[in-house]
Amino acid sequence: MDGEGRTAGAQAPERTAASVGACRGAGSRTAKQGRVMPGAEALVASLEAEGVDVVFGYPGGQAIRLYDALYGSDQITHVLARHEQGAVHMADGYARSTGRAGVAIVTSGPGATNTVTGIATAYLDSVPLIVITGQVPRSVIGTDSFQESDIVGITMPVVKHSFLIQDAADIARTVREAFHIAVTGRPGPVLIDVPSDIAADEVAFCYPDAVDLPSYKPTYRGNARQIRAACRLIEESDRPLMIVGGGAVSSEAGPEAAALMELMGIPCVTTLMGKGAVPSSHPLNLGPVGMHGAKYSNRAMTEADLVIAAGARFSDRVTGRLSDFAPNARIVHIDIDPAEIGKVVAVDVPIVGDLKGVLAAIAAQLIRDGARPRTAAWLDQLASWRERWPFYHPRMAEAESAGEIVPEVAIAELGRQIDPDRSIIATEVGQHQMWAHQLLGRERPRAFVTSGGLGTMGFGFPAAIGAAIGNPGAQVVCVAGDGSFQMNSQEMATAAANGVPVKVMLMDNRCLGMVHQWQKLFYGGRYSETLLAPVPDFVKLADAYGWAGERVERPAEVASAIARMLAAEGPYLLDVAISPDQSVYPMVAPGEGLDSMMGAIDVAVGAVRTGAGGRGE
Protein backbone atom coordinates (compact mmCIF):
# COMPACT_ATOMS: atom_id res chain seq x y z
CA MET A 1 0.00 0.00 0.00
CA ASP A 2 1.32 3.45 -0.87
CA GLY A 3 1.15 6.65 1.13
CA GLU A 4 -2.29 7.56 -0.20
CA GLY A 5 -3.88 4.34 1.04
CA ARG A 6 -4.29 2.55 -2.31
CA THR A 7 -3.06 -0.91 -3.05
CA ALA A 8 0.00 -1.27 -5.26
CA GLY A 9 -0.88 -1.39 -8.93
CA ALA A 10 -4.42 -0.03 -8.41
CA GLN A 11 -5.52 2.34 -11.14
CA ALA A 12 -6.19 5.87 -9.94
CA PRO A 13 -9.80 6.98 -10.50
CA GLU A 14 -10.32 9.30 -13.42
CA ARG A 15 -10.66 12.92 -12.38
CA THR A 16 -12.56 15.64 -14.17
CA ALA A 17 -10.91 18.98 -14.89
CA ALA A 18 -13.05 20.50 -12.14
CA SER A 19 -11.88 18.01 -9.53
CA VAL A 20 -8.24 18.98 -9.99
CA GLY A 21 -8.94 22.69 -10.49
CA ALA A 22 -7.48 22.96 -13.99
CA CYS A 23 -8.15 26.16 -15.93
CA ARG A 24 -11.14 25.73 -18.20
CA GLY A 25 -9.88 28.58 -20.36
CA ALA A 26 -6.61 29.56 -21.95
CA GLY A 27 -4.76 29.97 -18.65
CA SER A 28 -1.25 31.32 -19.20
CA ARG A 29 -1.72 30.91 -22.97
CA THR A 30 -4.03 33.92 -23.00
CA ALA A 31 -3.12 36.59 -25.56
CA LYS A 32 -3.00 39.16 -22.76
CA GLN A 33 -0.15 37.42 -20.93
CA GLY A 34 2.70 39.87 -20.29
CA ARG A 35 0.76 43.08 -21.03
CA VAL A 36 0.86 46.02 -18.65
CA MET A 37 -2.65 47.06 -17.63
CA PRO A 38 -4.67 48.51 -14.75
CA GLY A 39 -5.63 46.12 -11.98
CA ALA A 40 -9.30 46.11 -13.05
CA GLU A 41 -8.30 44.93 -16.52
CA ALA A 42 -6.04 42.32 -14.97
CA LEU A 43 -8.98 40.96 -13.01
CA VAL A 44 -11.15 40.76 -16.13
CA ALA A 45 -8.25 39.20 -18.06
CA SER A 46 -7.94 36.65 -15.25
CA LEU A 47 -11.60 35.72 -15.59
CA GLU A 48 -11.09 35.36 -19.34
CA ALA A 49 -8.04 33.16 -18.80
CA GLU A 50 -10.16 30.99 -16.50
CA GLY A 51 -12.70 30.50 -19.28
CA VAL A 52 -15.51 32.63 -17.85
CA ASP A 53 -18.04 33.63 -20.48
CA VAL A 54 -20.82 35.14 -18.36
CA VAL A 55 -20.96 37.06 -15.08
CA PHE A 56 -23.94 38.37 -13.16
CA GLY A 57 -23.89 41.58 -11.22
CA TYR A 58 -24.80 45.15 -10.40
CA PRO A 59 -22.40 48.13 -10.67
CA GLY A 60 -21.61 50.85 -8.14
CA GLY A 61 -19.04 53.47 -7.25
CA GLN A 62 -16.29 51.22 -5.89
CA ALA A 63 -16.79 48.67 -8.68
CA ILE A 64 -16.90 51.21 -11.51
CA ARG A 65 -13.36 50.45 -12.71
CA LEU A 66 -14.17 46.74 -12.80
CA TYR A 67 -17.21 47.50 -14.92
CA ASP A 68 -15.20 49.77 -17.19
CA ALA A 69 -12.83 46.87 -17.78
CA LEU A 70 -15.76 44.51 -18.46
CA TYR A 71 -16.96 46.96 -21.11
CA GLY A 72 -13.87 46.11 -23.16
CA SER A 73 -14.16 42.32 -22.89
CA ASP A 74 -15.04 40.46 -26.08
CA GLN A 75 -15.38 37.16 -24.21
CA ILE A 76 -17.49 37.90 -21.15
CA THR A 77 -21.18 38.73 -21.27
CA HIS A 78 -22.48 40.63 -18.25
CA VAL A 79 -26.06 40.01 -17.09
CA LEU A 80 -27.41 43.00 -15.18
CA ALA A 81 -29.61 41.81 -12.32
CA ARG A 82 -32.02 44.12 -10.55
CA HIS A 83 -30.71 43.26 -7.07
CA GLU A 84 -27.37 41.93 -5.87
CA GLN A 85 -29.03 38.97 -4.13
CA GLY A 86 -30.66 38.08 -7.43
CA ALA A 87 -27.28 38.29 -9.17
CA VAL A 88 -25.69 35.78 -6.77
CA HIS A 89 -28.66 33.41 -7.06
CA MET A 90 -28.35 33.62 -10.86
CA ALA A 91 -24.66 32.74 -10.64
CA ASP A 92 -25.63 29.90 -8.29
CA GLY A 93 -28.26 28.53 -10.70
CA TYR A 94 -25.72 28.76 -13.50
CA ALA A 95 -23.21 26.78 -11.41
CA ARG A 96 -25.63 24.09 -10.23
CA SER A 97 -26.94 23.43 -13.71
CA THR A 98 -23.61 23.51 -15.59
CA GLY A 99 -21.06 22.28 -13.05
CA ARG A 100 -18.93 25.36 -13.69
CA ALA A 101 -18.21 28.05 -11.12
CA GLY A 102 -20.68 30.91 -11.28
CA VAL A 103 -19.36 34.48 -11.05
CA ALA A 104 -20.99 37.59 -9.59
CA ILE A 105 -19.59 41.13 -9.41
CA VAL A 106 -21.03 43.84 -7.16
CA THR A 107 -19.95 47.04 -5.47
CA SER A 108 -19.02 47.77 -1.86
CA GLY A 109 -21.16 48.48 1.18
CA PRO A 110 -24.83 47.63 0.63
CA GLY A 111 -24.00 46.04 -2.71
CA ALA A 112 -21.71 43.60 -0.95
CA THR A 113 -23.98 42.96 2.02
CA ASN A 114 -26.87 42.20 -0.34
CA THR A 115 -24.91 39.16 -1.51
CA VAL A 116 -24.74 37.49 1.90
CA THR A 117 -27.93 35.42 1.59
CA GLY A 118 -26.87 34.18 -1.84
CA ILE A 119 -23.39 33.27 -0.58
CA ALA A 120 -24.83 31.43 2.43
CA THR A 121 -27.24 29.55 0.15
CA ALA A 122 -24.36 28.35 -2.01
CA TYR A 123 -22.24 27.47 1.01
CA LEU A 124 -24.87 25.23 2.62
CA ASP A 125 -25.43 23.41 -0.68
CA SER A 126 -21.74 23.18 -1.70
CA VAL A 127 -22.00 25.25 -4.88
CA PRO A 128 -18.86 26.72 -6.54
CA LEU A 129 -19.16 30.50 -6.76
CA ILE A 130 -16.75 33.39 -7.20
CA VAL A 131 -18.18 36.58 -5.71
CA ILE A 132 -16.15 39.70 -6.51
CA THR A 133 -16.89 42.81 -4.48
CA GLY A 134 -15.60 46.31 -4.98
CA GLN A 135 -14.14 47.88 -1.83
CA VAL A 136 -13.21 51.38 -0.72
CA PRO A 137 -9.55 52.41 -1.24
CA ARG A 138 -7.01 50.84 1.09
CA SER A 139 -6.22 54.19 2.68
CA VAL A 140 -9.72 54.52 4.16
CA ILE A 141 -10.51 50.89 5.02
CA GLY A 142 -11.53 50.80 8.66
CA THR A 143 -12.59 54.46 8.86
CA ASP A 144 -16.33 53.91 8.19
CA SER A 145 -15.99 55.68 4.88
CA PHE A 146 -18.95 56.01 2.53
CA GLN A 147 -20.29 52.59 1.45
CA GLU A 148 -17.63 50.68 3.35
CA SER A 149 -18.44 47.28 4.83
CA ASP A 150 -16.14 44.56 6.09
CA ILE A 151 -17.54 42.00 3.68
CA VAL A 152 -14.66 39.60 4.34
CA GLY A 153 -15.52 39.58 8.03
CA ILE A 154 -19.27 39.50 7.46
CA THR A 155 -19.13 36.45 5.19
CA MET A 156 -16.40 34.55 7.03
CA PRO A 157 -18.75 31.81 8.34
CA VAL A 158 -20.37 31.18 4.93
CA VAL A 159 -17.47 31.08 2.46
CA LYS A 160 -15.02 28.35 1.68
CA HIS A 161 -12.30 31.02 1.52
CA SER A 162 -12.00 34.77 1.09
CA PHE A 163 -9.37 37.18 -0.20
CA LEU A 164 -8.83 40.91 0.40
CA ILE A 165 -6.42 41.91 -2.35
CA GLN A 166 -3.66 44.20 -1.09
CA ASP A 167 -1.49 44.50 -4.20
CA ALA A 168 -2.37 44.61 -7.89
CA ALA A 169 0.43 42.12 -8.53
CA ASP A 170 -1.61 39.54 -6.58
CA ILE A 171 -4.75 39.79 -8.72
CA ALA A 172 -4.04 37.03 -11.26
CA ARG A 173 -2.74 34.60 -8.65
CA THR A 174 -5.73 35.30 -6.39
CA VAL A 175 -8.24 34.61 -9.15
CA ARG A 176 -6.44 31.37 -10.08
CA GLU A 177 -6.46 30.22 -6.45
CA ALA A 178 -10.07 31.28 -5.96
CA PHE A 179 -11.32 29.14 -8.84
CA HIS A 180 -9.16 26.22 -7.73
CA ILE A 181 -10.56 26.37 -4.20
CA ALA A 182 -14.16 26.86 -5.35
CA VAL A 183 -14.35 23.82 -7.63
CA THR A 184 -12.07 21.28 -5.95
CA GLY A 185 -12.74 19.11 -2.93
CA ARG A 186 -16.13 19.98 -1.50
CA PRO A 187 -17.19 22.89 -3.75
CA GLY A 188 -18.16 26.21 -2.25
CA PRO A 189 -18.23 30.00 -2.61
CA VAL A 190 -15.06 32.11 -2.56
CA LEU A 191 -15.07 35.88 -2.04
CA ILE A 192 -12.58 38.30 -3.63
CA ASP A 193 -12.68 41.85 -2.22
CA VAL A 194 -10.97 44.41 -4.47
CA PRO A 195 -10.14 47.92 -3.16
CA SER A 196 -10.83 50.49 -5.85
CA ASP A 197 -7.33 51.97 -5.76
CA ILE A 198 -5.86 48.55 -6.57
CA ALA A 199 -8.21 48.37 -9.54
CA ALA A 200 -6.44 51.48 -10.86
CA ASP A 201 -2.82 50.41 -10.22
CA GLU A 202 -0.77 49.28 -13.21
CA VAL A 203 0.49 45.69 -13.29
CA ALA A 204 2.17 43.32 -15.73
CA PHE A 205 -0.41 40.59 -16.31
CA CYS A 206 0.89 37.09 -15.67
CA TYR A 207 -1.73 34.37 -15.24
CA PRO A 208 -0.48 31.18 -13.54
CA ASP A 209 -1.63 27.71 -14.53
CA ALA A 210 -0.59 26.08 -11.25
CA VAL A 211 -1.43 26.90 -7.66
CA ASP A 212 0.68 26.41 -4.57
CA LEU A 213 -1.57 25.96 -1.54
CA PRO A 214 0.28 23.67 0.90
CA SER A 215 -2.50 23.83 3.49
CA TYR A 216 -5.24 22.89 1.02
CA LYS A 217 -4.96 19.32 -0.19
CA PRO A 218 -8.34 17.60 -0.56
CA THR A 219 -8.31 13.83 -0.26
CA TYR A 220 -9.59 12.14 -3.41
CA ARG A 221 -8.63 8.48 -2.99
CA GLY A 222 -10.41 6.55 -0.29
CA ASN A 223 -8.36 4.50 2.15
CA ALA A 224 -8.09 0.93 0.84
CA ARG A 225 -8.56 -0.61 4.28
CA GLN A 226 -11.78 1.32 4.83
CA ILE A 227 -13.01 0.38 1.36
CA ARG A 228 -12.49 -3.30 2.17
CA ALA A 229 -14.30 -2.83 5.49
CA ALA A 230 -17.26 -1.30 3.65
CA CYS A 231 -17.25 -4.22 1.23
CA ARG A 232 -17.43 -6.71 4.09
CA LEU A 233 -20.53 -4.99 5.46
CA ILE A 234 -22.13 -4.96 2.01
CA GLU A 235 -21.38 -8.64 1.47
CA GLU A 236 -22.99 -9.52 4.81
CA SER A 237 -26.04 -7.28 4.42
CA ASP A 238 -29.56 -8.56 3.71
CA ARG A 239 -31.27 -5.14 3.84
CA PRO A 240 -28.82 -2.49 2.54
CA LEU A 241 -29.89 1.01 1.57
CA MET A 242 -27.90 3.82 -0.08
CA ILE A 243 -28.58 7.52 0.58
CA VAL A 244 -27.62 9.44 -2.55
CA GLY A 245 -26.82 13.06 -1.67
CA GLY A 246 -25.60 16.19 -3.39
CA GLY A 247 -22.03 14.90 -3.40
CA ALA A 248 -23.08 12.41 -6.06
CA VAL A 249 -24.01 15.33 -8.31
CA SER A 250 -20.87 17.35 -7.54
CA SER A 251 -18.54 14.40 -8.20
CA GLU A 252 -20.51 13.14 -11.20
CA ALA A 253 -20.83 9.83 -9.38
CA GLY A 254 -24.34 8.88 -10.48
CA PRO A 255 -23.18 6.12 -12.87
CA GLU A 256 -20.93 4.62 -10.20
CA ALA A 257 -23.74 4.71 -7.64
CA ALA A 258 -26.11 2.99 -10.07
CA ALA A 259 -23.48 0.39 -10.98
CA LEU A 260 -22.93 -0.53 -7.32
CA MET A 261 -26.68 -0.68 -6.73
CA GLU A 262 -27.16 -3.03 -9.68
CA LEU A 263 -24.16 -5.16 -8.77
CA MET A 264 -25.39 -5.91 -5.25
CA GLY A 265 -29.13 -5.27 -5.51
CA ILE A 266 -28.94 -2.21 -3.25
CA PRO A 267 -31.90 0.19 -3.38
CA CYS A 268 -31.35 3.91 -2.83
CA VAL A 269 -33.19 6.92 -1.49
CA THR A 270 -32.34 10.46 -2.53
CA THR A 271 -31.95 13.70 -0.66
CA LEU A 272 -33.20 16.98 -2.10
CA MET A 273 -29.67 17.78 -3.30
CA GLY A 274 -29.11 14.30 -4.72
CA LYS A 275 -32.17 14.29 -6.97
CA GLY A 276 -31.31 13.18 -10.50
CA ALA A 277 -27.88 11.72 -9.71
CA VAL A 278 -29.48 8.30 -10.14
CA PRO A 279 -32.37 8.46 -12.65
CA SER A 280 -35.75 8.69 -10.93
CA SER A 281 -37.00 5.90 -13.20
CA HIS A 282 -34.31 3.47 -12.05
CA PRO A 283 -36.14 0.50 -10.50
CA LEU A 284 -33.85 0.56 -7.44
CA ASN A 285 -34.42 4.28 -6.79
CA LEU A 286 -37.04 4.72 -4.05
CA GLY A 287 -36.93 8.50 -4.37
CA PRO A 288 -37.30 11.17 -1.69
CA VAL A 289 -36.62 10.39 1.97
CA GLY A 290 -37.11 12.37 5.15
CA MET A 291 -39.64 14.90 6.40
CA HIS A 292 -41.67 14.89 3.18
CA GLY A 293 -40.27 11.70 1.69
CA ALA A 294 -42.26 8.64 0.76
CA LYS A 295 -43.51 6.44 3.58
CA TYR A 296 -41.89 3.45 1.89
CA SER A 297 -38.54 5.28 1.69
CA ASN A 298 -38.65 6.19 5.35
CA ARG A 299 -39.74 2.66 6.29
CA ALA A 300 -36.78 1.34 4.30
CA MET A 301 -34.44 3.57 6.30
CA THR A 302 -35.93 2.33 9.55
CA GLU A 303 -35.68 -1.37 8.61
CA ALA A 304 -32.32 -1.34 6.80
CA ASP A 305 -29.42 -3.28 8.33
CA LEU A 306 -26.83 -1.24 6.40
CA VAL A 307 -26.95 2.42 5.33
CA ILE A 308 -24.41 3.71 2.81
CA ALA A 309 -24.37 7.51 2.82
CA ALA A 310 -22.99 8.53 -0.56
CA GLY A 311 -22.15 12.23 -0.52
CA ALA A 312 -24.94 13.01 1.97
CA ARG A 313 -24.53 14.98 5.19
CA PHE A 314 -27.37 13.58 7.34
CA SER A 315 -29.46 16.75 7.39
CA ASP A 316 -32.09 16.89 10.12
CA ARG A 317 -34.72 16.99 7.35
CA VAL A 318 -33.47 13.53 6.27
CA THR A 319 -32.84 11.89 9.63
CA GLY A 320 -35.81 12.99 11.71
CA ARG A 321 -35.27 12.34 15.42
CA LEU A 322 -31.66 11.16 15.61
CA SER A 323 -32.23 8.66 18.38
CA ASP A 324 -34.61 6.76 16.08
CA PHE A 325 -32.62 7.11 12.85
CA ALA A 326 -31.76 3.79 11.14
CA PRO A 327 -31.88 1.93 14.46
CA ASN A 328 -31.03 -1.45 12.93
CA ALA A 329 -28.25 -0.35 10.60
CA ARG A 330 -24.49 -0.23 10.45
CA ILE A 331 -23.44 2.97 8.68
CA VAL A 332 -20.86 3.60 5.95
CA HIS A 333 -20.31 7.30 5.26
CA ILE A 334 -18.44 8.43 2.13
CA ASP A 335 -17.66 12.15 1.85
CA ILE A 336 -14.85 14.29 0.50
CA ASP A 337 -15.18 16.60 3.51
CA PRO A 338 -13.84 14.87 6.63
CA ALA A 339 -15.64 17.39 8.84
CA GLU A 340 -19.00 15.93 7.79
CA ILE A 341 -18.21 12.37 8.84
CA GLY A 342 -19.40 11.69 12.38
CA LYS A 343 -20.70 15.24 12.78
CA VAL A 344 -24.34 14.19 13.06
CA VAL A 345 -24.52 10.39 13.04
CA ALA A 346 -22.09 7.87 14.52
CA VAL A 347 -20.41 5.98 11.67
CA ASP A 348 -19.09 2.41 11.55
CA VAL A 349 -16.96 2.80 8.41
CA PRO A 350 -15.85 6.34 7.49
CA ILE A 351 -14.34 6.87 4.03
CA VAL A 352 -12.90 10.26 3.11
CA GLY A 353 -12.52 10.71 -0.63
CA ASP A 354 -14.08 11.61 -3.94
CA LEU A 355 -17.35 9.70 -4.22
CA LYS A 356 -16.89 8.77 -7.88
CA GLY A 357 -13.60 7.03 -7.25
CA VAL A 358 -14.61 5.48 -3.92
CA LEU A 359 -17.80 3.90 -5.29
CA ALA A 360 -15.87 2.56 -8.27
CA ALA A 361 -13.26 1.10 -5.92
CA ILE A 362 -15.93 -0.53 -3.75
CA ALA A 363 -17.56 -2.13 -6.79
CA ALA A 364 -14.19 -3.35 -8.10
CA GLN A 365 -13.36 -4.91 -4.73
CA LEU A 366 -16.74 -6.64 -4.55
CA ILE A 367 -16.20 -8.09 -8.02
CA ARG A 368 -12.77 -9.35 -6.99
CA ASP A 369 -14.34 -10.90 -3.89
CA GLY A 370 -16.95 -12.68 -6.01
CA ALA A 371 -19.69 -11.04 -3.90
CA ARG A 372 -23.31 -11.83 -4.66
CA PRO A 373 -26.42 -9.90 -3.62
CA ARG A 374 -28.58 -11.22 -0.79
CA THR A 375 -31.41 -8.74 -1.20
CA ALA A 376 -34.18 -10.57 -3.09
CA ALA A 377 -36.53 -10.72 -0.08
CA TRP A 378 -35.70 -7.12 0.83
CA LEU A 379 -36.52 -5.85 -2.65
CA ASP A 380 -39.80 -7.78 -2.65
CA GLN A 381 -40.72 -6.18 0.67
CA LEU A 382 -39.89 -2.71 -0.64
CA ALA A 383 -41.98 -3.31 -3.76
CA SER A 384 -45.01 -4.18 -1.65
CA TRP A 385 -44.54 -1.06 0.51
CA ARG A 386 -44.12 1.07 -2.60
CA GLU A 387 -47.41 -0.23 -3.96
CA ARG A 388 -49.22 0.31 -0.67
CA TRP A 389 -48.03 3.85 0.13
CA PRO A 390 -47.73 5.83 -3.14
CA PHE A 391 -47.19 9.59 -3.33
CA TYR A 392 -50.16 9.92 -5.67
CA HIS A 393 -53.41 8.08 -6.29
CA PRO A 394 -56.26 8.99 -8.67
CA ARG A 395 -58.60 9.42 -5.71
CA MET A 396 -56.58 12.49 -4.78
CA ALA A 397 -58.21 14.24 -7.72
CA GLU A 398 -61.76 13.70 -6.43
CA ALA A 399 -61.73 17.23 -5.02
CA GLU A 400 -61.78 18.41 -8.63
CA SER A 401 -65.51 17.72 -8.66
CA ALA A 402 -65.84 20.74 -6.38
CA GLY A 403 -63.79 22.85 -8.79
CA GLU A 404 -60.60 22.87 -6.73
CA ILE A 405 -57.20 22.46 -8.37
CA VAL A 406 -55.28 19.73 -6.53
CA PRO A 407 -51.61 20.87 -6.45
CA GLU A 408 -50.24 17.33 -6.75
CA VAL A 409 -52.30 16.83 -9.90
CA ALA A 410 -51.08 20.11 -11.41
CA ILE A 411 -47.43 19.35 -10.63
CA ALA A 412 -47.77 15.83 -12.00
CA GLU A 413 -49.24 17.27 -15.19
CA LEU A 414 -46.19 19.51 -15.57
CA GLY A 415 -44.06 16.39 -15.21
CA ARG A 416 -45.98 14.67 -18.00
CA GLN A 417 -45.51 17.57 -20.41
CA ILE A 418 -41.92 18.71 -19.88
CA ASP A 419 -39.12 17.22 -21.94
CA PRO A 420 -37.30 14.76 -19.64
CA ASP A 421 -34.03 15.09 -21.56
CA ARG A 422 -33.66 18.84 -21.99
CA SER A 423 -35.62 20.34 -19.10
CA ILE A 424 -34.40 21.92 -15.89
CA ILE A 425 -36.70 22.41 -12.93
CA ALA A 426 -35.88 25.14 -10.43
CA THR A 427 -37.94 25.69 -7.31
CA GLU A 428 -38.54 28.33 -4.75
CA VAL A 429 -38.88 27.17 -1.13
CA GLY A 430 -42.03 25.90 0.54
CA GLN A 431 -44.88 23.50 -0.13
CA HIS A 432 -44.46 23.69 -3.90
CA GLN A 433 -40.79 22.70 -3.48
CA MET A 434 -41.79 19.48 -1.73
CA TRP A 435 -44.53 18.69 -4.26
CA ALA A 436 -41.96 19.14 -7.02
CA HIS A 437 -39.47 16.90 -5.21
CA GLN A 438 -42.09 14.22 -4.74
CA LEU A 439 -43.73 14.26 -8.16
CA LEU A 440 -41.26 15.54 -10.76
CA GLY A 441 -38.85 12.78 -11.73
CA ARG A 442 -35.43 13.78 -12.97
CA GLU A 443 -33.44 11.47 -15.23
CA ARG A 444 -30.11 13.28 -15.07
CA PRO A 445 -28.09 15.31 -12.59
CA ARG A 446 -28.12 19.11 -12.53
CA ALA A 447 -31.71 19.16 -13.76
CA PHE A 448 -33.26 20.01 -10.37
CA VAL A 449 -32.12 23.33 -8.89
CA THR A 450 -33.31 24.13 -5.40
CA SER A 451 -32.15 25.60 -2.08
CA GLY A 452 -31.78 22.73 0.37
CA GLY A 453 -29.59 23.63 3.32
CA LEU A 454 -30.59 27.26 3.83
CA GLY A 455 -34.12 27.00 2.42
CA THR A 456 -33.90 30.43 0.78
CA MET A 457 -37.16 31.98 -0.33
CA GLY A 458 -36.44 34.10 -3.39
CA PHE A 459 -33.74 31.72 -4.67
CA GLY A 460 -35.53 29.67 -7.31
CA PHE A 461 -36.62 32.30 -9.81
CA PRO A 462 -33.26 34.08 -10.27
CA ALA A 463 -31.54 30.67 -10.15
CA ALA A 464 -33.79 29.58 -13.02
CA ILE A 465 -32.62 32.61 -15.02
CA GLY A 466 -28.99 31.63 -14.39
CA ALA A 467 -29.71 28.03 -15.38
CA ALA A 468 -31.39 29.15 -18.61
CA ILE A 469 -28.44 31.40 -19.50
CA GLY A 470 -25.99 28.59 -18.76
CA ASN A 471 -27.98 26.04 -20.79
CA PRO A 472 -29.19 27.66 -24.01
CA GLY A 473 -32.00 25.65 -25.55
CA ALA A 474 -33.00 23.98 -22.29
CA GLN A 475 -36.61 24.09 -21.15
CA VAL A 476 -36.32 25.85 -17.77
CA VAL A 477 -39.34 25.99 -15.47
CA CYS A 478 -39.41 27.54 -12.02
CA VAL A 479 -42.02 26.03 -9.72
CA ALA A 480 -42.78 28.79 -7.21
CA GLY A 481 -45.11 29.88 -4.47
CA ASP A 482 -46.63 33.34 -4.39
CA GLY A 483 -44.75 34.21 -1.19
CA SER A 484 -41.31 33.11 -2.37
CA PHE A 485 -41.73 34.53 -5.85
CA GLN A 486 -42.40 38.03 -4.57
CA MET A 487 -39.04 38.13 -2.78
CA ASN A 488 -37.17 38.54 -6.06
CA SER A 489 -39.91 39.13 -8.63
CA GLN A 490 -38.03 42.23 -9.82
CA GLU A 491 -35.78 39.85 -11.75
CA MET A 492 -38.62 39.51 -14.27
CA ALA A 493 -36.99 42.62 -15.74
CA THR A 494 -33.69 40.74 -16.08
CA ALA A 495 -35.35 37.89 -17.96
CA ALA A 496 -37.24 40.26 -20.23
CA ALA A 497 -34.28 42.53 -20.98
CA ASN A 498 -32.02 39.58 -21.80
CA GLY A 499 -34.56 37.52 -23.73
CA VAL A 500 -34.38 34.62 -21.27
CA PRO A 501 -37.35 32.31 -21.98
CA VAL A 502 -37.76 31.09 -18.40
CA LYS A 503 -41.20 29.86 -17.31
CA VAL A 504 -42.73 30.31 -13.86
CA MET A 505 -45.49 28.00 -12.64
CA LEU A 506 -46.87 29.77 -9.58
CA MET A 507 -48.72 27.64 -7.03
CA ASP A 508 -50.79 30.52 -5.72
CA ASN A 509 -52.52 29.92 -2.38
CA ARG A 510 -52.28 33.51 -1.11
CA CYS A 511 -50.48 32.38 2.01
CA LEU A 512 -47.04 31.38 3.21
CA GLY A 513 -47.95 27.77 2.61
CA MET A 514 -45.47 25.74 4.62
CA VAL A 515 -45.59 27.93 7.73
CA HIS A 516 -49.38 28.11 7.35
CA GLN A 517 -49.47 24.29 7.26
CA TRP A 518 -47.44 24.07 10.48
CA GLN A 519 -49.73 26.61 12.13
CA LYS A 520 -52.72 24.50 11.10
CA LEU A 521 -51.27 21.22 12.32
CA PHE A 522 -49.30 22.23 15.41
CA TYR A 523 -50.52 25.67 16.53
CA GLY A 524 -54.28 25.22 16.57
CA GLY A 525 -54.95 27.16 13.38
CA ARG A 526 -53.55 30.41 14.77
CA TYR A 527 -52.49 31.87 11.41
CA SER A 528 -50.14 34.58 12.60
CA GLU A 529 -48.93 36.64 9.60
CA THR A 530 -49.10 33.82 7.05
CA LEU A 531 -52.21 34.93 5.16
CA LEU A 532 -51.30 37.14 2.20
CA ALA A 533 -53.56 39.79 0.73
CA PRO A 534 -54.77 39.02 -2.82
CA VAL A 535 -52.19 41.31 -4.40
CA PRO A 536 -50.58 41.65 -6.81
CA ASP A 537 -52.48 40.52 -9.85
CA PHE A 538 -49.67 38.32 -11.18
CA VAL A 539 -50.95 38.37 -14.76
CA LYS A 540 -50.88 42.17 -14.77
CA LEU A 541 -47.43 42.06 -13.17
CA ALA A 542 -46.25 39.78 -15.95
CA ASP A 543 -47.67 42.15 -18.55
CA ALA A 544 -45.94 45.10 -16.89
CA TYR A 545 -42.59 43.36 -17.33
CA GLY A 546 -43.30 42.35 -20.93
CA TRP A 547 -44.03 38.71 -20.07
CA ALA A 548 -46.92 36.60 -21.26
CA GLY A 549 -49.10 35.26 -18.46
CA GLU A 550 -52.42 33.75 -17.50
CA ARG A 551 -54.29 32.56 -14.41
CA VAL A 552 -56.13 29.26 -14.08
CA GLU A 553 -58.72 28.53 -11.40
CA ARG A 554 -60.43 25.34 -12.59
CA PRO A 555 -58.97 21.82 -12.88
CA ALA A 556 -60.04 21.44 -16.50
CA GLU A 557 -57.88 24.43 -17.48
CA VAL A 558 -54.58 23.17 -16.08
CA ALA A 559 -53.30 20.84 -18.81
CA SER A 560 -53.90 23.23 -21.70
CA ALA A 561 -52.46 26.16 -19.75
CA ILE A 562 -49.25 24.22 -19.03
CA ALA A 563 -49.01 23.36 -22.72
CA ARG A 564 -49.29 27.05 -23.65
CA MET A 565 -46.66 27.98 -21.07
CA LEU A 566 -44.17 25.43 -22.35
CA ALA A 567 -44.81 26.34 -25.99
CA ALA A 568 -44.29 30.08 -25.45
CA GLU A 569 -41.13 31.49 -27.03
CA GLY A 570 -40.43 34.05 -24.31
CA PRO A 571 -40.80 34.24 -20.53
CA TYR A 572 -44.19 33.13 -19.26
CA LEU A 573 -45.97 33.17 -15.89
CA LEU A 574 -48.74 30.68 -15.16
CA ASP A 575 -50.67 31.58 -12.01
CA VAL A 576 -52.31 28.41 -10.68
CA ALA A 577 -54.92 29.11 -8.00
CA ILE A 578 -54.91 26.55 -5.18
CA SER A 579 -56.56 26.53 -1.77
CA PRO A 580 -54.63 27.68 1.32
CA ASP A 581 -56.00 24.56 3.03
CA GLN A 582 -53.85 22.26 0.87
CA SER A 583 -51.03 20.55 2.78
CA VAL A 584 -47.90 18.64 1.76
CA TYR A 585 -48.14 15.00 2.78
CA PRO A 586 -46.80 12.63 3.87
CA MET A 587 -45.00 14.42 6.66
CA VAL A 588 -42.81 13.62 9.62
CA ALA A 589 -43.72 16.02 12.40
CA PRO A 590 -40.84 18.06 13.85
CA GLY A 591 -39.02 16.08 16.52
CA GLU A 592 -40.47 12.73 15.44
CA GLY A 593 -38.75 9.70 13.94
CA LEU A 594 -38.96 8.67 10.31
CA ASP A 595 -41.34 5.84 11.16
CA SER A 596 -43.94 8.32 12.44
CA MET A 597 -45.56 9.77 9.32
CA MET A 598 -48.71 11.80 8.91
CA GLY A 599 -50.91 11.81 5.82
CA ALA A 600 -49.49 8.92 3.82
CA ILE A 601 -51.84 7.43 1.25
CA ASP A 602 -52.64 3.83 2.23
CA VAL A 603 -54.04 1.76 -0.62
CA ALA A 604 -54.80 -1.05 1.84
CA VAL A 605 -57.50 1.04 3.52
CA GLY A 606 -59.05 2.62 0.45
CA ALA A 607 -56.34 4.91 -0.90
CA VAL A 608 -57.02 7.66 1.62
CA ARG A 609 -54.57 9.67 3.68
CA THR A 610 -54.06 8.31 7.17
CA GLY A 611 -53.28 10.31 10.29
CA ALA A 612 -53.33 13.63 8.47
CA GLY A 613 -55.77 15.39 10.72
CA GLY A 614 -57.30 17.12 7.74
CA ARG A 615 -57.90 16.41 4.07
CA GLY A 616 -58.78 12.77 3.41
CA GLU A 617 -59.70 11.99 7.02
TrEMBL record:
Gene: ilvB
Annotated organism of origin: Adlercreutzia faecimuris
Higher taxonomy: Bacteria, Bacillati, Actinomycetota, Coriobacteriia, Eggerthellales
Note on how the cofactor is bound: Binds 1 Mg(2+) ion per subunit.
Pathway(s): Amino-acid biosynthesis; L-isoleucine biosynthesis; L-isoleucine from 2-oxobutanoate: step 1/4; Amino-acid biosynthesis; L-valine biosynthesis; L-valine from pyruvate: step 1/4
Cofactor(s) needed by this chain: Mg(2+); thiamine diphosphate
Positions of the Thiamine pyrophosphate enzyme TPP-binding domain: 429-576
PROSITE patterns: TPP_ENZYMES
EC number: 2.2.1.6
Record key words, sorted: Amino-acid biosynthesis, Branched-chain amino acid biosynthesis, Magnesium, Metal-binding, Thiamine pyrophosphate, Transferase
All residue ranges annotated as the Thiamine pyrophosphate enzyme N-terminal TPP-binding domain in the record: 37-152
One Pfam family it belongs to: TPP_enzyme_N
GO molecular function: acetolactate synthase activity
Superkingdom as given in the UniProt entry: Bacteria
Region of interest: Disordered: 1-31
Name of the protein in question: Acetolactate synthase
Top-level enzyme category: transferase
